[in-house]
Model the fold of this input.
Amino acid sequence: MPVAFVAGLSSLIGLFVNTTVALLIQWFCSGTGQKSTADVQRLIDDVILHEDFKAEDLQGVNLARELKKLDTFESSLEDQGWKKGSVKISVPCPKKKVAESKAVEFEIEGLLYRDLTTVIKNACQDEATMDSFHATPFKEMWKPSDNASPIRLYGEAYTSDEMISAYEEVQNIPPHPDYPDAENVVIELAPYSDATLLAQFGTAFLWPVYIYFGNLSKYVRSQPSSHAAHHTAYFPSLPDSFSDWYRETFGIVPSEATITHCKRELIQALWLLILSAPDFVQAYQYGIFICFADQVIRRVFPRFFAYMADYPEKVLLACIWNLGACPCPRCLIKIGYIQGLGTTVDGQRRAKLRTCDRRYKAKIEIARKIIYKNGYVINSKAVNRVIGSESWTPTRSAFVSVLSQFGLNFFSLFVVDLMHEFELGVWKAVLTHLIRILYTQGAEVIAEFDRR
Ligand SMILES: [Zn+2]
Done:
């Protein structure tokens, strides 16, 4: 029996450095004895010694009531459609020749994501943004004067030809007998993801995925106060334990190429989890009835219109090599031709778009077979011969797997990111160059530039 049970507190005080330690040790040795030394050490280091810890704040605290708040918080997350899931990725090992379906799997748990249909319902039912939410697209025209002919304006997603044709397409779907009067409408989804470094030191990354709605005016959508960015998921990172697990499983250290491959597989696995939810696939195909904030029931068809991300993330999502032979996620322009930007022939070269046709899917399957079944390394010549000329990586895109059967060309979603790819890239470089030229012309010229 521990000494604290037999000895009273007064006899322990002499034994330890002070009363606080004696009280703690006595508590540690009491009760069911399920407290580990490490747990108590953590209680000391992380809680009691924390700079924000104040003993007086605990005056009159009812622990049971406080814990109940945690339950309510978790169930409110569930009400907002948040889910916790896990995914398994098939891990290849060079020279271990085994079909992909029989390859060893690595499981990643605790993925946080939201049900897409709940996200869509929330957006359609948001009373705060209702006045700026357009379920029906239209052409916006401007007449500069009475005599002038009208000019078409382009400024919003819901005035684009893209959305108008998507809207016209769903008009062909016959009404549902349950709601024969409900208008068929398209809800434009535009996912946005950005790897954000949360902690200033340490390795804590948070990589959130948001969904914006093209039906909402950009003037409202872009205001942080409108809360129009719908938080949808967190991209997981490959756990640090992966390398140890790989070494234990295969007896070798994973190569850089294998780790990169598994990271790509993981991102696609999360998207697959979100997109392949039966509710969402059903909604995509047959529509979902939603009573909007204006109390009108509409039959909503979700469609993806753009995927907003910076270049490294586009590369990851489009399953292509970073700055490979064909570096563009949208088209098949060769890297050597990029310098022709702005020329007539450049436009022609970019017209050859990436498509998720049968030929593309077959190539990816062959490449994966070479890796898993034939035991080649990911970046081997054998794999490169099949997919290298168009810079594909041997990854199955979740968007292609779930939505290409309904006519979505996933690669067309990667629209130009004006801030990252033009303003911070081309334009900033040109401006810096021009300013350097100005500096050679003397201080007066610089002053004139500043004045302008
Ligand atoms: Zn391109």
Remarks:
- Confidence is low (pLDDT under 50) at residues 1-6.
- The two ends are 85 Å apart (CA to CA).
- The first strand starts at residue 82 and ends at 90.
